[in-house]
What we know:
Shape: elongated
Amino acid sequence: QASFVPSQSYLDDIHTRLGELYAQRDAYTNEIVRVHKMLDMLVANRQGVNGCIDLYKSLAAPIRRLPVDVLIHIFREALCFDVPPSRSFTDVFRRRVTTPLRLAEVCDLWREIILQNPLLW
């Protein structure tokens, strides 16, 4: 009530309780900070594991077992793939130039194959 005037002992109890509540709040804040740091560490660790998974999946990909001559054949087909007769010479030429560049960006092996086979560029 608005007309209530607390006694000194009541005020002392309030201040004591406030001190306890501030300490409890600080403890929660510290725990939240600790948990956030742990969560950040766990997320970073999971990203590292995901990187390893991606690497191993890439190493085990079936395309890595294809002989080079088969890859060359696939690359040659990619140069002519989906170029409808209605396309202009410029479009066909642009595709002929950009396709080997894109293939060469995939990995070192593909870049080596592209560079060693002038028919692909």
